[in-house]
Amino acid sequence: MLVSIQEEIDDEQVSELLKRLSNMVRATRARAVIVDLSDVEVMDTFLAENIQKLASTMSLFRTQTVVAGLGAAAITALKSFNMTFGHSLIFALDAEQALEKLGRKMVRIEDQ
Asked: Which residues contact 13 (CB under 8 A, 6 or more apart)?
């Protein structure tokens, strides 16, 4: 399952996304969730905590969470928050690398 978070997302939208994603993962029994944050330029503590909460919740469903697309500023912010993510969260440069880390391969339509 691939989820793209836009920069403009507010606190209420993040909370709603977590609820909807949890329901979708439970219903589909997805084995992995890739959270694409490539459009997020500023990482605040609320978003970081919710990513941590998402990974923790997904691990209860035995679903791996991969965060992809973080820019240098967002990575620096995450490090400054001193948060621990443990094994429930994997980081990747982009969605393609996220799939590779999950043992999957991206197939582009123009490559076929």
From this structure: none
